Design the sequence.
């Protein structure tokens, strides 16, 4: 086990997280997990095993039956509603499995939303859209986009405010291999450029290979995978995302 650097607060800790739906449908059972700043972890596991449930608990979209979620040193359950909302708004970027792009806003407005909510300048939104391959599409509306393009808008929106913790639920599920490779490079580059920690849920072994660690969710807990990670940073367009993220400040 790696020794933690003195004084470095984990980006995320899950302590004893349990969740059941109804009687007997145990999804998570006293799950423990620590994610260091800058670390990129892939979570794999069979459909229905609880991967989205775990991300939803971390993001506060669903509540655990017991256990704690600690984000950047703050025990979320000990915060009042306003403070918990503020913490998530500032520190979390979430790419939902079903995108949740807002239909009545343009792409630029969708991506700028986290900046607006955090009272940050919105000028960088178009650069982050460009970084996911949607240059010049800022005035389009979501209905004009393909599934893979919508997925990339959702990814741009999750990265634009340089969150400390990025949660991505099957972010390459609708992308062709080349676009998926570019998007994975962006996640990795963002994590190196800003120190963000990333959890990516995926069914794709090729996508998981980008991560520093691969964990398998089964029987309510996370287990180390023997699969190797092979991604080379030379593939990541790190300058582009670093520049975009800087411009977004
Ligand atoms: N709101 C809910 N009410 C009842 N059961 C639920 C609810 N949400 C999820 N479940 C159940 O919890 C289990 C885990 O679901 P979850 O969506 O977390 O799976 P997953 O690992 O993300 O699957 P997939 O790979 O298909 O996305 C499933 O059996 C699902 O039916
Ligand atoms: Mg899921």
Sequence:
């Amino acid at each position: 086990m790696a020794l933690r650097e003195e004084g470095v607060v984990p980006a995320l800790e899950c302590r004893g997280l349990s969740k059941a739906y109804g009687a007997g449908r145990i999804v998570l059972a006293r799950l423990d997990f620590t994610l260091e700043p800058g670390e990129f972890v892939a979570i794999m596991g069979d459909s229905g095993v609880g991967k989205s449930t775990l991300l939803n608990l971390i993001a506060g979209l669903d509540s655990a039956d017991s256990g704690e979620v600690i984000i950047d040193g703050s025990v979320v359950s000990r915060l009042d509603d306003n403070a918990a909302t503020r913490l998530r708004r500032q520190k979390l970027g979430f790419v939902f499995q079903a995108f949740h792009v807002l239909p009545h806003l343009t792409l630029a407005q969708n991506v700028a939303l986290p900046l607006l909510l955090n009272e940050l300048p919105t000028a960088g939104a178009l650069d982050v859209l460009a970084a996911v391959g949607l240059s010049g599409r800022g005035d389009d509306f979501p209905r004009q986009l393909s599934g893979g393009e919508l997925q990339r808008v959702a990814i741009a929106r999750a990265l634009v405010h340089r969150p400390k913790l990025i949660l991505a639920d099957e972010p390459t599920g609708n992308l062709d291999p080349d676009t998926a490779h570019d998007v994975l490079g962006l996640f990795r580059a963002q994590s190196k450029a800003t120190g963000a920690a990333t959890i990516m849920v995926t069914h794709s072994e090729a996508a998981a290979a980008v991560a520093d660690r691969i964990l398998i969710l089964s029987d309510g807990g996370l287990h180390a995978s023997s699969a190797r990670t092979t991604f080379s940073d030379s593939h990541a367009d790190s300058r582009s995302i670093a520049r975009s993220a800087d411009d977004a400040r």
Summary: The chain has one domain: 12-248. The mean pLDDT is 88.
